[in-house]
From TrEMBL, chain A:
Residue ranges, compositional bias (Polar residues): 280-294
Family assignment from sequence similarity: Belongs to the cation transport ATPase (P-type) (TC 3.A.3) family. Type IIC subfamily.
Superkingdom of the organism of origin: Eukaryota
One protein family per Pfam: E1-E2_ATPase
InterPro entries associated with the record: ATPase_P-typ_cation-transptr_C, ATPase_P-typ_cation-transptr_N, ATPase_P-typ_cyto_dom_N, ATPase_P-typ_P_site, ATPase_P-typ_TM_dom_sf, ATPase_P-typ_transduc_dom_A_sf, ATPase_P-type_domA, Cation_transp_ATPase_P-type
UniProt source species: Oncorhynchus kisutch (Coho salmon)
Domain Cation-transporting P-type ATPase N-terminal, chain residue ranges per copy: 107-181
Protein task: This is the catalytic component of the active enzyme, which catalyzes the hydrolysis of ATP coupled with the exchange of sodium and potassium ions across the plasma membrane. This action creates the electrochemical gradient of sodium and potassium ions, providing the energy for active transport of various nutrients.
Summary of subunit composition and partner proteins: The sodium/potassium-transporting ATPase is composed of a catalytic alpha subunit, an auxiliary non-catalytic beta subunit and an additional regulatory subunit.
Region of interest (Disordered), residue spans: 280-299
Protein name: Sodium/potassium-transporting ATPase subunit alpha
TrEMBL record, chain B:
Gene3D superfamilies linked: 1.20.5.170, Na, k-atpase alpha subunit
Annotated Gene Ontology cellular component terms: sodium:potassium-exchanging ATPase complex
Sorted UniProt keywords: Cell membrane, Disulfide bond, Glycoprotein, Ion transport, Membrane, Potassium, Potassium transport, Signal-anchor, Sodium, Sodium transport, Sodium/potassium transport, Transmembrane, Transmembrane helix, Transport
Biological role: This is the non-catalytic component of the active enzyme, which catalyzes the hydrolysis of ATP coupled with the exchange of Na(+) and K(+) ions across the plasma membrane.
PANTHER family reported for this sequence: SODIUM/POTASSIUM-DEPENDENT ATPASE BETA SUBUNIT, SODIUM_POTASSIUM-TRANSPORTING ATPASE SUBUNIT BETA-2
Membrane topology: Single-pass type II membrane protein
BP GO annotations: intracellular potassium ion homeostasis; intracellular sodium ion homeostasis; potassium ion import across plasma membrane; sodium ion export across plasma membrane
MF term (GO), any: ATPase activator activity
InterPro entries named in the record: Na/K_ATPase_sub_beta, Na/K_ATPase_sub_beta_sf
Protein name from the UniProt record: Sodium/potassium-transporting ATPase subunit beta
Transmembrane segments: 34-56
Organism: Oncorhynchus kisutch
Amino acid sequence: MAYSQCFSVSLSHTNTHTHTYALSLSLSLSLSLSLSLPSLSVSLFLLSLSLSSFSLSLPSLSLFLLSLSLSLSLSLSLSLSLSLSLSLSLSVSVSLSFPPSLSTFQTEHKMSIEECCRKFNTDIVQGLTNAKAAEFLIRDGPNCLTPPPTTPEWIKFCRQLFGGFSILLWTGAILCFLAYAIQAATEDEPAGDNLYLGIVLSVVVVVTGCFSYFQEAKSSKIMESFKNMVPQQALVIREGEKMTINAEEVVAGDLVEVKGGDRIPADLRVVSAHGCKVDNSSLTGESEPQSRSPDCTHDNPLETRNVAFFSTNCVEGTARGIVVCTGDRTVMGRIATLTSGLESGKTPIAKEIEHFIHLITGVAVFLGITFFILAVCLGYTWLEAVIFLIGIIVANVPEGLLATVTVCLTLTAKRMAKKNCLVKNLEAVETLGSTSTICSDKTGTLTQNRMTVAHMWFDNQIHEADTTEDQSGASFDKTSASWAALARVAALCNRAVFKAGQDQLPILKRDTAGDASESALLKCIELSCGSVKQIREKNKKVAEIPFNSTNKYQLSVHETEDPNDNRYLLVMKGAPERILDRCTTIIIQGKEQPMDEEMKESFQNAYMELGGLGERVLGFCHLLMPEDQYPKGFAFDCDDVNFTTESLCFVGLMSMIDPPRAAVPDAVGKCRSAGIKVIMVTGDHPITAKAIAKGVGIISEGNETVEDIASRLNIPVSQVNPRDAKACVIHGTDLKELSQDQMDDILRNHTEIVFARTSPQQKLIIVEGCQRLGAIVAVTGDGVNDSPALKKADIGVAMGISGSDVSKQAADMILLDDNFASIVTGVEEGRLIFDNLKKSIAYTLTSNIPEITPFLLFIIVNIPLPLGTITILCIDLGTDMVPAISLAYEAAESDIMKRQPRNPTRDKLVNERLISIAYGQIGMIQALGGFFSYFVILAENGFLPSILVGIRLNWDDRACNDLEDSYGQQWTYEQRKIVEFTCHTAFFVSIVVVQWADVIVCKTRRNSVFQQGMKHTNILYILLTYLPCCVFINLCPPPPLSRPSWWFCAVPYSVLIFVYDEIRKLLIRRNPGGWVERETYY
Amino acid sequence: MAKDAEKSTWKDFIWNSRTREFCGRTGSSWGLILLFYLVFYIFLAGMFCLTMYVMLQTLDDYKPTWQDRLGTPGMMIRPRGKAMEISYNTTNTETWDMYIKTLDNFLSPYNNSLQAEKNEECTPDQYFVQADSGDVKNNPKRSCQFNRTFLEKCSGLDDHTYGYQAGKPCIIIKLNRVIGMLPGKDGQAPFVTCGAKKEDSDKIGEVEYYPENGTFNLMYYPYYGKKAQVNYSQPLVAIKFLNITLNEDINIECRIISNNIPPGSVRDKFAGKVSFKLRINTKG
């Protein structure tokens, strides 16, 4: 019944799909409409305020407005990354509406394991054959959810063509065509100006539309590649071999193994489980992990314990199961297909962008209409006034800026991807740049995650193993019987296996399935004693308790090698102190001896010595179980332990080192100079943690912990003033007892902190503590349990190699090589792009002043128009674009990693200093440069500046054909218009010339350009701007600048901009914190 | 509650009494930044003035640097009318009174007495060249007399209405002043010829030119600019329509005929020619 309901829902849904789409469209339309109204009124209010109270000197209110809108535009591409997390969020919302009554659809959980196997033609040990699997794969298709229908490309293209500012420009174009049509109808010889302008505007809209479209396509392609780069893997057993395959290739009937941290690759009927718990929260909303076992406990497949669901997560333990359903046929798939058609609402960021566009549009329209009315009042025809209106709009809207920001962020994301930092959303690029604290894992991030057995302790002696990669180091005595016992325990009590198909590779280079230390042991034993596989085959495993964080040991029970010996061999490894506690005897030279105090002390010394080297020490023990108590066939129950785990025989210690990565000490040093606090959070022993911390420089040389001071001065720890110690190592158990204030105190007063023996939950506490102190925290994590911390952190960093899928999902960024140094690269890139965006924006905004002032003066003091509309378009979209983007390639000023992190509440992208510089200073110089060439051309043609003021009425009067110039000559209308167009051209060329200087000064904010150096690319880009300039001059109706000197009128102003800014930067460098820096350093 | 907080932050932004900040700045901070901008803009103004000064220094006082836009001098008529359209009613004095006033004003500097006082009689039919000898300027330049009486019936001396009342209006045509222009070579003076546009050609009737043949005498050229040749009297040609068709729009085009003036661009309707519309109404 319920099923049919679902079915009908899905059916009707597919039918109404087009309708829902249309609905959502109209919805978004009404949304934008409702948004536009308040935004307009707000902008008008702000504008009138800023105009009335500040005039030209410092319009900080409108600056605030601008900075607001710009910071919003930063998050442009965020919406793109959404699709990654879409499926998860969707399922959560839907699980509420669907009662768990999908009972008709699955019956496998009620079948026995054998029935199940029969149904899927599979084998409980060997798994499917490869041929069968391939056959099933063809039959069922890949194991993935059908992606929701994507928007057709042409709709995306149209959105670019008619969205945002484009509507404004289209309106302008249509007005132009209308004006031309009216002219053509009423006049004998209509002037082509309006037609040209209309065509140019349309071309501009289409070209910018195409640009944004391709940019978006490019970004989504990058996001797509992110998805492909982190494919989900599944460990399946086929033909008896374990192999890791792409989760998409899993087919029904596959035997799948999952362990803590994995995502369940398909719907599984569990056949065996060891302490397996799954997190079904994404499906059922229950946050508590639930244990899984092979037994059917409930009729409802959603309730029973023996089914694990696709895309939920295994939190801990291990399980093995038969795949029952794949892809869209899974429970999750059904829900997802039902819901994927539902359009998700606009993201807050998308709304913000819309708001930003409305704001800018509102301001432009408001100014345009004001000028329109002014122009009409001043006696212009409506036609001319409309063209001025278009001009004002065009001059006010920085058409190229949005595209520039996107391009800059995309460039950085690409550059970071090349350096092994995958950024899931572009906004994270910037967040990373302002990071002030990094909480880093030790294992794998700071170290190589390549555990190697370094030392062993048996026969009351420390033996050194060969840790070199080429096995050239010294070897140890392998003849001792104790070593044989130790090797056997290490080989058997070990879940790691070599992955199939790499027999040719040297042992150390082979990939293994299993955790790092087990792999280290596996490799060590394989190296010294030969095939571990054979040892394991000879000693068949009967029972096993995998490692978990509560027991801190792992044990397994095996049959012995000797077929006549019916005793079982219990082998155990784990934390040495725990192992020792369980032992009553110790093996020395192959002989069992009682464990006495002397031995214990000797053990302690060895343990401390190895631990002091920063090595992970594991204790090993074994027990040949007495046959009378545990006869052959004894049923060992691992969940409810029914056998002894005490009175064992201690065999020895093996210690492993995970050497620091080569690049890490440098990276930590960089972080320190960049004002970023590096906190190590590890589950390891404090001594290990401290040793590695010292090795990589997290605890720098010469800095001591309280304990160090105490032992140096030989006084009790309590007498040491904690303020004397800059470094500290905090144990997880201590952390538990700390109050919030004490925690804050530690975080505030110690610069070098190591948290050892911490649980993932405590990681969250640490992150919260740092954030309480106002830090921007980056957290690395790889486990499922790290995901709360990753989510809580300002920027979560997941590990690409060792990280679980869940952690990758929760993270904002993924380190492909798991290397801490990559984070530092990311920080550097983040800071760089923030700086470069500032430069880009400063550059782009500057030319607004020389674009608007001609109109202002034209209307206020009645001079001939110095700059036309098409010319403004040419600047905004032609000559300004490429240099603005070229600034994104700008290399870091040398101090980028030597300054303190950005304070996100104070240091904004666009601040009043940037506007002050761009509009108030450089822009003004540029405007003067433009006006100078304007005056030069008029004066050299006979119109001296003195007669220009107020000349406009006669100048623009078609009937006045004997206008007298300063020399007494008389001009016809056409003659002086040609001069005016020459002026437009000259003004345009002047802006280009002064913008050359601007792009050079914008290259740096503090350094001299001479320190920064001129990169060839930059010069090339500057010269590239010359091309459209020349094309414009030679193709457009106004005559070219016939006098060479007219091309260079603005050069003195270019020089002035350069000199002025160099002096300003010199003053900033000379007087750090001085007035110049406070007022002009943006 | 939240609104109150927002309000107070706005208020705080405008005037923060605690830190004595107005719009986020203290008094001295405002003072410094305003002083900076004052000094900066004064400096910029100075810089601008300097470059302008340098530029103006490169200019010649007597002749503009470039004259290539004035290759073909423009032509203009007086009275100009409204958008080159002269229409009036002979019976209604008010409709043509303004034309009379315009012409009176325009011609007053050409009064014989004034001309005799300021200008001298020159040799006709040849250029009145007053060359500078090297760097020594031959200034001020003298100008030739163009007496109002040259315009005869259109001088307004005998007929104070310039023929407007009689429906035989005078239009005065002038050639735009261009410094150094020599409008005719080989001693041939340029002259004005007027005609109606195609469909109106039979309506224009007889046209009389003053001075004779509608010539601009060569002695008025070259022009040396208003600074060197303060009293220059621009030569005029008056045309009088003797029996123009009344009560109809007539499009008239006058052009300069010269062997030394290049034809103007097609776009420019006033280079070397002038078009205007004439309509004389007689009915009440």
